[in-house]
């Protein structure tokens, strides 16, 4: 009988990965983890491939119980993480024995928490990804009582191991501020806004409750297009900052449709997108202009930090003789 991870308190939790890369040409949104950085780090901390399936926990409390010994990592927004009532750290590998209850509660400052398991677990896939797609009805949210089939068990580890320097791996933890600064580069229609385009950077915007994984709706002093003429529908990137005719900005996120017909004033950078995946309704966003070179440099620095973490994890796991199956 296969070992499982049983959901005890579901809250809002889905099985995610990094999404459907290269499928926009077929009309499929990328989807995937809203905070890609936290998702990557969670998997790397468990010795997995960074694209392995993991759990995305949004806003509400969550609990699960494994049927065998496992190793987990919990990243993302600050939260209270316990194993059988004992407090455990985020952004580090944590051993869990069979039958112990893992709880994630009190998610704060950000919106989403990621839980990865050594070896990952079985998941259905669509076009190479397990990421849910609400339009196609693929990958519904998990419910209390659902079971995920684990791909491997962790060798027995005494809990003191989690308190020694081997497990202080210095994961790259991003800030979780009360007011967010999101980096953007110029969009294809920047020139159509004239001087009003500066409004994007002059004052903060507030995230409205109508925001979701498809896009964020922002209230504030909206820039206005000064040129005339219709904007034809065309392909739009994840992170496009669109300016409709009303009193809101739209910032497209990973569940966005692949075409749209609003002018695009700016585009959120790759690092900015991960931060944007943690912004809660009611929080404020200030946009910061970046050149393409600056955006690429920030993305490379973030990826280099993950690569360095992967090396430290490999060294620690080798010392403890922990092995994840190939392909996780």
TrEMBL record:
GO terms for molecular function: 5-oxoprolinase (ATP-hydrolyzing) activity. The keyword Transcription regulation does not apply. It comes from the Bacteria. SUPFAM superfamilies: Cyclophilin-like. Keywords: ATP-binding, Hydrolase, Nucleotide-binding. It is an enzyme of class 3 (hydrolase). Residues 25-305 form the Carboxyltransferase domain. PANTHER family: 5-OXOPROLINASE SUBUNIT C. This is Biotin-dependent carboxylase-like uncharacterized protein. It comes from Streptomyces pseudovenezuelae.
């Amino acid at each position: 009988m296969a070992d499982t991870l049983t959901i005890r308190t579901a809250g809002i939790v889905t099985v995610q990965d990094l999404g459907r890369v290269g499928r926009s040409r077929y009309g499929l949104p990328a989807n995937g983890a809203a905070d890609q950085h936290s998702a990557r780090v969670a998997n790397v901390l468990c010795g997995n491939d960074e694209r392995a399936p993991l759990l995305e926990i949004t806003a509400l409390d969550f609990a699960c119980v494994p049927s065998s010994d496992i190793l987990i990592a919990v990243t993302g927004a600050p939260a209270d993480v316990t194993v059988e009532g004992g407090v455990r750290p985020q952004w580090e590998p944590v051993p869990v024995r069979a039958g112990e209850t893992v709880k994630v509660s009190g998610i704060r400052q950000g919106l989403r928490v990621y839980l990865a398991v050594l070896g990952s677990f079985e998941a259905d896939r669509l076009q190479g990804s397990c990421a849910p797609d609400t339009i196609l009805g693929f990958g519904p949210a998990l419910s209390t009582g659902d079971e995920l089939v684990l791909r491997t068990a962790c060798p027995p580890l005494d809990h003191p191991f989690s308190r020694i320097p081997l497990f202080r791996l210095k994961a790259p933890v991003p800030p979780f501020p009360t007011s967010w600064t999101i980096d953007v580069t110029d969009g294809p229609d920047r020139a159509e806004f004239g001087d009003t385009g500066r409004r994007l950077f002059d004052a903060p915007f507030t995230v409205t409750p109508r925001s979701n994984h498809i896009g964020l709706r922002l209230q504030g002093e909206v820039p206005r297009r000064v040129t005339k003429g219709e904007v034809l529908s065309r392909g739009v990137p994840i992170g496009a900052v669109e300016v409709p005719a009303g009193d809101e900005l739209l910032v497209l996120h990973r569940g966005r449709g692949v075409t749209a017909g609003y002018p695009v004033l700016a585009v959120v950078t790759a690092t900015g997108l991960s931060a944007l995946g943690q912004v809660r309704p009611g929080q404020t966003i200030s946009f910061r202009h970046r050149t393409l070179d600056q955006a690429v440099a920030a993305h490379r620095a973030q990826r280099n930090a993950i690569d360095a973490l992967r090396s430290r994890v490999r060294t620690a796991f080798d010392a403890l003789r922990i092995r994840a199956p190939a392909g996780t």
